[in-house]
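Regression test case RT-17, inverse folding.

Input:
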């Protein structure tokens, strides 16, 4: 049993991970929160603690006795990475052994074509720098690819993760692809991710810097074949040019509809277009072909297979 601190535990992925940690009944969990209103004891083995991420002394105190820190605060809530950098600094002083930065939102091997996630690379560089003269903090980048649950949109299939639609729209039997590219995509269910995180906490030895989690590694064309099989009809495919995407031009007749709750007001429409362009562009350039470090460390773990998941979700749906 170890003591785990979760920063940003009120977020969607954070809550999914906390639920799985609690269900394992192995560890003591401390949820760090900016919001004093939510502070209080919750499930057995879980404690909430209010913190000020601008106060390093307070963070050091909060991390006393902590073995592992899992960071889930969204970039839009920490645009300069101030909270995450301060927590990293505090973790080093407090003697924390392991730190998992906010890779969960990135989910890919590279941020190429996705400027809204550039802050992830800055944190990676920061962690490299603090260890440049000798390791002072063990860390890993959990990278699961795209959540498979998003292909179930608009249906919610887990407790906390809200459905977001993608360039492959199962509900309306349509897709947008990059002309001339059959991209490799990695899809992992959030349930599998949370289980792997719990197993990773229990692993002896040092975490690898990158912990790629490859639930399913498939071509876009394969996803479309599965889609047509489980949806019982041919998908309408629109093709866009890579050169247009690189100029920020989207020629498709439709775009994304559901945005992340961290995006507000008049920024929603712009962000939806940016994310769709970025996802298409990055897929063509190989950013969603995630490595398989965790698969190798957990050879007996059985990941949810894409066709099984989608068949169950879409069975009987109009």
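Golden output:
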């Amino acid at each position: 049993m170890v003591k785990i601190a979760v920063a940003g535990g009120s977020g969607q992925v954070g809550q999914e991970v906390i639920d799985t940690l609690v269900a394992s009944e192995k560890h003591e969990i401390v949820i760090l929160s900016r919001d004093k209103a939510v502070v209080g004891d919750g499930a057995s083995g879980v404690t909430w603690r209010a913190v000020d991420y601008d106060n390093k002394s307070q963070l050091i105190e909060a991390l006393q006795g902590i073995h592992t820190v899992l960071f889930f605060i969204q970039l839009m809530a920490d645009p300069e990475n101030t909270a995450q950098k301060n927590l990293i600094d505090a973790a080093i002083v407090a003697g924390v052994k392991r730190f998992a930065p906010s890779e969960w939102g990135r989910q890919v091997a590279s941020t190429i074509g996705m400027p809204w996630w550039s802050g992830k690379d800055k944190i990676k560089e920061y962690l490299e720098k603090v260890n440049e003269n000798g390791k002072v903090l063990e860390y890993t980048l959990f990278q699961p690819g795209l959540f498979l649950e998003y292909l179930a949109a608009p249906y919610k299939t887990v407790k906390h993760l809200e459905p977001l639609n993608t360039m492959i729209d199962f509900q309306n039997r349509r897709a947008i692809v990059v002309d001339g590219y059959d991209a490799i995509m990695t899809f992992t269910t959030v349930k599998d991710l949370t289980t792997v995180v719990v197993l990773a906490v229990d692993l002896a030895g040092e975490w690898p810097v990158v912990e790629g989690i490859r639930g399913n590694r498939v071509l876009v064309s394969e996803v479309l074949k599965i889609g047509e099989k489980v949806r019982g009809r041919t998908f309408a495919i629109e093709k866009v040019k890579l050169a247009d995407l690189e100029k920020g031009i989207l020629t498709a007749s439709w775009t994304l509809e559901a945005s992340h709750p961290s995006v507000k007001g008049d920024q929603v429409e712009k962000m939806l277009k940016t994310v769709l362009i970025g996802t298409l562009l990055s897929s063509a350039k190989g950013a969603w072909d995630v490595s398989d470090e965790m698969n190798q460390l957990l050879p007996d773990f059985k990941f949810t297979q894409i066709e099984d998941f989608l068949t169950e979700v879409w069975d009987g749906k109009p």
